[in-house]
């Protein structure tokens, strides 16, 4: 496998397509493979993103990391203007991980006529959980992911399990639209105290960071209690998270992995518990797999 340690930063669609075509031709001329892998991000990269890129390098040959703060994913009063933009630091980090290209377009490049009139819809599931808190967010996410898949035409795209609802919706979009791409899902990357890695963690002060650990501890307690059924798992999580200071719970739900709809109390089988809470002033999400015998 050829690893390019100095990523080429590209900000236009045409240039990226031309560079990818040349990279694939060069790989073929050397007798090597040219599997393209896309890692879509909004930048402000942390250790979780690095793990996605490492997986991409492991499963492919030409790795493209997109860095684009997608305005379609942000609603009224959300943090589009203040969302961290750290392209220089992101490129430096990606140089260490072996990405070949960094695609960092401006909004006008992706949406030359303003907000796109043609958009994908995330359907009913897109209006639940994170979608209820952020109306239209998942429509915007799917629209930009579809655009990136069409621009890059990767063989594989890599996403993180931390954003479980996003992963479900992307996988469903790929299946529904018969897109020729394989989705690789990387397990949630956590800090030493169990807190799921997130760009928003930088907004936590020390008391909030300590309190935020309750999300992971509560999920872990739920997984341990799952042998007694769905209600027991929910009670176990609530007992931990509800007792934590500075934590305002938004939702805690157990969903079916194939529908992402809430399961009944008597459900048996694989499931996933989702949690979202505002810790201090920062909204955090997390999830865990449950085995309910």
UniProtKB/TrEMBL annotation:
Record field: catalytic activity: (R)-pantoate + beta-alanine + ATP = (R)-pantothenate + AMP + diphosphate + H(+)
EC top class, as a word: ligase
Active site: 49
An example Gene Ontology biological process: pantothenate biosynthetic process
Function: Catalyzes the condensation of pantoate with beta-alanine in an ATP-dependent reaction via a pantoyl-adenylate intermediate.
Family: Belongs to the pantothenate synthetase family.
Protein name: Pantothenate synthetase
Organism encoding this protein: Cryobacterium zongtaii
Gene name linked to the record: panC
